[in-house]
């Protein structure tokens, strides 16, 4: 368990904008920052970060909390893991009350897979640098590729000895469990139940998560045997889904944000060589076709992608249609072609950084225009093929969500295709109308026939109940004003928080999370502490954090023009704190009394015994007096 002083140092050092900015492209708006949600696919930003409060709120998914909560939600960290990630980022030594046994066995299955993958990366890296076989085969290969010692260490490159059980045997000896070795894909089970190494005699490329943890591997053979696959990659697992991962993104994300551009290449070596040359905003799709999830990962950091192709014309044509997905996600795509016989790796190794950059700047071409040029050359003078090219180009343009950008491409392509701009616009409109119709048909669900309804129970009404709202209002006021002094009715030396807790001592909260919050607040007061909002924002209980952030966050900000130009003033609840605080307390009490009265009325209707009816009726009359007293008090406070 991490000690309280360590947690406090981590929280004090953490800049939530800086932390979330590593994962989401944020723009300043007023006192807050906004960006596209990393938890939902959206075109309009609804993700807000408040540096003053130290919280984020995602209005698309409803998620919210501190920097710790963000890491837990996005990277599926546990609470201690998120704290350790922040501690590492801010160079804070972590003190724990008991010695960690992470390198042995974890209850958390996902964490166990992470741990065994991290151990494997360390084993392969040490095998590369320290054993004779690794040095003579693996290290010499990387050196021949031009990789420096610093680069090899940075990317944690490694070597798996050419033995059946070199890694597996050592891992089992160290106490790692068979099931995690197999599930991670590091070991393979024989028919007799014994295990052997998957990556024998291969140089190893660890694949890192967005936060830098090793989650998978790519292993390249150095043998010339054609029956041996060139690459062996980790299978899908609980921690590794290849369609959601970009190789090198962990090392590239800061540069991508700063350069506002992402270079997309094909292989591991391309990423490493270009990165080593000082061009760090480069990633690869890990040997798979580009996926929507990978595009969205890039889209969180920049809206500009530059694809760096090698000289393989057949490969380029095969990938063109798939790249329409990038346009559909609203990103700008440029393409750079390297001379025949060169890929980004070989080109930068041979010509150096400055020539590489100049080649990219001089040869980058917008994807739509590049695609048009490629397909026109392929069609030649065949009118049927040319008509097909025109339709394919318009299909690509139709995927661009920005109408202005699409119209610019129509104009450019009309010249290149030598066809009237109006004809292209007409075709574009037809495609968009067809898509809109198809989408509306998908979203339309016909009403069921009366006979169908007989087979289903009516759904239970899920309207928001007012008592829930009143309970959450109490939480909000405790968070915002609990540490302020009471300034009404001559009350002195009393804080609003303890006052509210005392006034609510006879109220039982229905919502479990609100009840838990009030109880935590009460305990802190009894311990002589007046809890601040940060105490709850950094609470390990996720439900508490969600409640607090929802109470503090707002999706909208009032424009200054309301005050300065239009002289429109919104009532300030702080102007009459007596009305705000007592109003909330007695509104909640009135709701609770109303619920009691409703239950008593039901009991009266269901009871036939005269004596019982008299008892219930007396209780009912007493509660009616309480209700009237509260109503009178509310009126005098609010209307005064």
Keywords:
single chain; 640 residues; alpha+beta; 5-stranded mixed beta sheet; 16 strands; DNA_primase_core_N_sf
Query: What structural class do the secondary elements suggest?
Result: alpha+beta
Query: How would you sum up the global shape?
Result: globular
Give helix % range.
40-55%
Low-pLDDT regions: 99-107, 447-466
Strand order of the largest sheet: 1-2-3-4-5
Radius of gyration equals 32 Å
Could you give the distance between the termini?
Answer: 53 Å
**What oligomeric arrangement do these chains adopt?**
single chain
What proportion of the residues form beta strands (DSSP E)?
A: 5-15%
Main sheet overview: 5 strands, antiparallel
Our count of helices gives 29
Number of β-strand runs: 16
How much is the average pLDDT?
A: 84
Catalytic activity: ssDNA + n NTP = ssDNA/pppN(pN)n-1 hybrid + (n-1) diphosphate
Enzyme class: transferase
Cofactor: Zn(2+)
Protein name: DNA primase
What does this protein look like?
By secondary structure, this protein is α+β, with helices and mostly antiparallel strands. Helices cover 53% and strands 10% of the residues. It has 29 helices and 16 strands. The strands form 4 sheets. The protein has a 5-stranded antiparallel beta sheet with strand order 1-2-3-4-5. A 5-stranded mixed beta sheet has the order 13-12-14-15-16. Strands 6-9-10-11 form a 4-stranded antiparallel beta sheet, with helices on both faces. β4 (55-58) and β5 form a beta hairpin. α11 packs parallel to α15, α15 (344-351) packs across α16 and α28 (577-606) runs antiparallel to α29 (610-638). The chain is globular. The model is unreliable at 99-107 and 447-466 (pLDDT under 50). Residues 260-341 form the Toprim domain. InterPro entries: DNA_primase_core_N_sf, DNA_primase_DnaB-bd, DNA_primase_DnaG, DNA_primase_Znf_CHC2, DnaG_bac, DNAG_N, DnaG_primase, TOPRIM_DnaG_bac. It comes from Mucilaginibacter litoreus.
